[in-house]
Amino acid sequence: xxxxxxxxxxxxxxxxxxxxxxxxxxxxxxxxxxxxxxxxxxxxxxxxxxxxxxxxxxxxxxxxxxxxxxxxxxxxxxxxxxxxxxxxxxxxxxxxxxx
Length: 99
Description:
Radius of gyration: 15 Å
Low-confidence stretches: 1-5
Largest sheet: none
Oligomer: single chain
Mean pLDDT: 81
Distance between the termini: 51 Å
Helix content: over 70%
Order of helices and strands: HHHH
Number of domains: 1
């Protein structure tokens, strides 16, 4: 059970950071660029999940248990893809600064 909670917490943190990244790129009007599309997908697919602790305080405990199961199911996909997607994003935007 502790491992499951750890996976849920790690996934929540990853989703929270992905949401922040997408929000930042939207501010700069570059959210539709190819390297960011996966992050947009995660943001869109998880926008119904209560990720922030402040939001979770308003949720029923039984509902959170069910939602946390869904979050744990997303973990393997996110964990597998995140390093590659981050590297692609970094490489894409680093090229703007190379001379």
